[in-house]
Amino acid sequence: MEPGIRLSTLCLLLCLGPVSGFGVDPSLQIDVLSELQLGGSTEGVRQVPGLHNGSKAFLFPDTSRNVKASPETAEIFFQKLRNKCEFTILVTLKQARLNSGVILSIHHLDHRYLELESSGHRNEIRLHYRSGSHRSHTEVFPYILADDKWHRLSLAISASHLILHVDCNKIYERVVEKPFMDLPLGTTFWLGQRNTAHGYFKGIMQDVQLLVMPQGFISQCPDLNRTCPTCNDFHGLVQKIMELQDILAKTSAKLSQAEQRMNKLDQCYCERTCTMKGTTYREFESWTDGCKNCTCMNGSVHCEALICPLADCPLNSALAYVDGKCCKECQSVCVFEGRTYFEGQRETVYSSSGDCVLFECKDHKMQRIPKDSCTPLNCPESQQIPLSHSCCKVCKGHDFCTEGHSCMEHSVCRNLEDRAVCSCRDGFRALREDNAYCEDIDECAEGRHYCRENTVCVNTPGSFMCVCKTGYIRIDDYSCTEHDECVTNQHNCDENALCFNTVGGHNCVCKPGYTGNGTICKAFCKDGCRNGGACIASNVCACPQGFTGPSCETDIDECGTGRHSCANDTVCFNLDGGYDCRCPHGKNCTGDCIHEGKIKHNGQIWVLENDRCSVCSCQNGYVMCRRMVCDCQNPTVDLFCCPECDPRLSSQCLHQSGELSYNSGDSWIQNCQQCRCLQGEVDCWPLPCPEVDCEFSVLPESECCPRCVTDPCQADTIRNDITKTCLDETNVIRFTGSSWIKHGTECTLCQCKNGHVCCSVDPQCLQEL
């Protein structure tokens, strides 16, 4: 199993948390329709009623249009998306039947960095993107979105983990190549089309949003469970492990050199020193660090809270804090209007006429001093805040912290309306009443932690962590267990349920859209399925032939609607779920057929359920099927099945290069995709490639499908096997997929490929030396 698949499996199994509400940080949100400012002046687009009245909805008709973000607006979008690998696309839409159109597209020249497309011709949703190897990828999701009905669509991506929701039902979940969002300058953003000539979406769109976060579908469907952490978190952990391997290799080499030097110093006495904040202290040396007394003992720094001495201040002075010192010291004071002020402290007094007078404590007296010249304010008078130490007002929201503050280590400056104050960071407590100095809270020693069974609490700066005891595995942040029954598949959960490991057991929870106790989960339809219909998904009934409706409650009258194929010598009688062709009394009607378990009468003609362009007939007991004959002279010919019969110029298509035009029904290959012109719309889908069942494969330039190779160093795609490791030049074990700079070089990059070490020199690195 590949590491990406293992990580995605962990993503699904580790966490479960019900979400009662979900708010989105505006800095992580792109409201596309609002930012593009669509309205009456936008050619080819007009506002119409939407699925709800909470936001504007716009109709994208079959007319020429140019819905494209300006370079300035596009750059605002891209600043949020650039180099991000966690984001969610949200859209509420109603797409015209058989339309194949682009919902949104972010591309530069021919490179589609992110494009979401819905094909009504092939009944599928497509995601086009580029990966870190600078290759184009297309993910195809079979689903009918172009049915002229309202749908809420969500596509969430977290590194290589992708989830597609439609109408709050999880439709697909896949492990894909990690998207590459290094958007270059000149990248464009289009809505409802790929460019001015191709990919026109036909229908209504509402609530088009990009959220720079995983699991953004919760903002569209807040009742869905949010799983945590995301797969991007796991990928980050894997990357950190690889980085630590590289550090380990370099550290091992340094340790080897250090051991050689230390062997020569065995007979020497070395005094152990301590280093703190860039300063080195000798053994038993003491010093003051903020509000702590510290001592170097046996190479370690030991600190304890400073105890301030009691001071007896002389007349006209009092204890006050001094910048850079922890304890209060005697400072000269002034008494003014019953209040005490320290040397240099200022106070404003307003006269009866409203004039401001500024006083300052000097030499035990409050002395009047000239007012400062005030800078003009760019805010209304109602937003101006008076200050107690200055005759100049400030605007509401003024940043006092940038003017200087006394907040020291583990303390941060926070702005109030008329001054700045200090506040201890989370996990720290104040050492002084003004919060200028703070110390770490040891949650473990004070019992202020949440570590549960089989864990050991370890204090960290500002927090704590729960470490599993030896031989135990983690369930969540606070508890561990001896055995993970979900990972080892030793559980009794239904295939439509999620397994969650617990201490001493596991829990089974049915997936959304299914009901049951977890060990048995069945699809749930709110109103049930009648007349033999089967509930196949959440509120989706599969109706038997002859019935229709959301719950299969309506019988189809084939006789009254003419949807029967009774021969001229028979009479049609409607039945529940079908019809019967009965012979008049005294006549002989024989030759019925059996097709897919159903009776078809002699002479009956029907269209295949899964192929509207193929027709079958019953002829004297034999079923004969063929493609529909295209009679272009027939004015009622189905242009979907016979696009070559469409003579309209509007049904022609323009090639992607703009140099060729095609008639409806024509096909061609472009950039490893099969393209077809159908009634003026170009629809392209990836060329099918044969399965490559090998350990190493490569995709040569100018070819569309990968091929197997035996040399791992030539391969660009590897079926990773994490059980195969490599031994680098310093005898450090490397996991497959990890890379490192070869020891003793600067430009030689090595990589572990399923037990094989492959190294190459970076020419650009050599030029920079």
From TrEMBL:
In this chain the VWFC domain maps to 272-331, 591-646, 651-709
Q: Which UniProt keywords apply?
A: Calcium, Coiled coil, Disulfide bond, EGF-like domain, Glycoprotein, Repeat, Signal
**At the top level of its lineage, which domain of life is listed?**
Eukaryota
Q: Which parts of the chain are coiled coil?
A: 241-268
**Signal sequence: where?**
1-21
Task: Give the CC-aspect GO terms.
Answer: cytoplasm; extracellular space
In terms of Gene3D superfamilies, this protein maps to: 2.60.120.200, 6.20.200.20, Complement Module, domain 1, Laminin
Q: Name one Pfam family in it.
A: EGF_CA
CDD domains given in the database record: EGF_CA, LamG
Protein name as catalogued: Neural EGFL like 2
